[in-house]
Amino acid sequence: MEIIGYLASLIIGISLGLIGGGGSILTVPVLVYLMGVEPVLATAYSLFIVGSTSLVGALPKYRQGLVNLKTAIIFGAPSILAVFATRKYIIPLIPNEVFTIGGFIVTKSILMMVLFAVLMVFASISMIRDQKKPAENGNGEQKFNYPLILVEGALVGVLTGLVGAGGGFLIIPALVLLSKLPMKQAVGTSLLIIAAKSLIGFTGDLSHTTMDWKLLLIVTSLAIVGIFIGDKLSTKVDGDKLKKGFGWFVLVMGIYIIVQQLFFPLGGGH
Fold first, then answer.
1. Cα 226 to Cα 7: distance, rounded to the nearest angstrom
2. Based on the structure, what is the number of domains in the chain?
C-alpha cells in the first residue's frame, strides 16, 4: 500500500505540472487511504505537500513572466489570513463527535472527509465541463473587482483551511473573471497563491500537531519530481483531454469517499 502511496505522490505532482491544478485534490485521499494517516492530520500534511510543490511549480512560471504579483497579493492576502485562522483556531474547536443522526455518529474525521469529497465532486465537474475559453485580455488595462476578490479570496482560504486542498479550480476562474488575467497568467499566479496560503496555513497547525516529517518530506519530494515530469509532458499532451479524463477520475473518487464514509465508516480515522 505504501509503495502505491508513493507512486500516487508522483502522480499528484505530474497532474500539477500538466494541468496546473487538480493534484491537491488527490493528496488527502492518498494520505488517508494509502498511507493510513488520520483524516484531520492528512489535511494538515496536504497543505505542506501542496504548498511546497506549487512553490516549485511557480518558479519557472515566474521566470516566463506568467505570474502577476499584484493580483497574487490582492487575492492572496485575505486567503492566507483565512487559511491560517481556520487551521489555528477553527479546526481545534471542532469536537470529535460533531452530531448524531439516528444512531449514526458524525465524527470530526467523517465530517472532514465528506466535506472534502463534496469539494472533489465540484472540482471534477469544473474539469469535465467544456470550458469556454475566456477572451484573452492581454493588452487591455487590468481592472480589479476589489470587494469580490477579497470575499472570494477569504472563502477559498477557509475552504483550503478546512479540507487541505489548494483550490486551484476555484482560484483560476476567479482570476480570469475578476482580475481579467489571461489564462496562462492565471495558472502561474494561482500556483503562487496556492503555495503561499498552503504553507502559511500549515504553520497554524504546528503549535498543536505532531508531524511525521519523514513521511511528509518523502511524499513532497516525489510530488516535486512529478511536477517536473508533468511540465516536460505538457508540451506533448493535449491538456484539455487530459483534464476531462482526470475530472472523471476525481468524480468517481469523490463519490466513493462519500459512500465509504457515510455507509461503511471503517478505517476513516476511527
1. 10
2. 1
User: 127 near 243, Cβ under 8 Å?
Assistant: yes
268 in any annotated domain? no
Cell of 176: 480570469
Below-70 pLDDT ranges, the chain: 20-23, 131-141, 239, 266-270
- Give the chain's largest Cα–Cα span: 60
Residue 152 falls inside a structural domain: yes
Q: Would residue 224 count as lying in a domain?
A: yes
pLDDT tens track for 247-262: 888 899 899 999 999 8
Tell me if 158 is assigned to some domain.
Answer: yes
Give per-residue pLDDT as tens, 197-237: 999 989 988 888 889 999 999 999 999 999 888 878 877 87
Contacts for 245 with CB less than 8 Å, ≥ 6 apart: none
- Evaluate whether 198 touches 160 at the Cβ level (below 8 Å): yes
Angle at CA 152, nearest 5°, toward 247 and 93?
Answer: 90
Domain of residue 22, residue span: 2-263
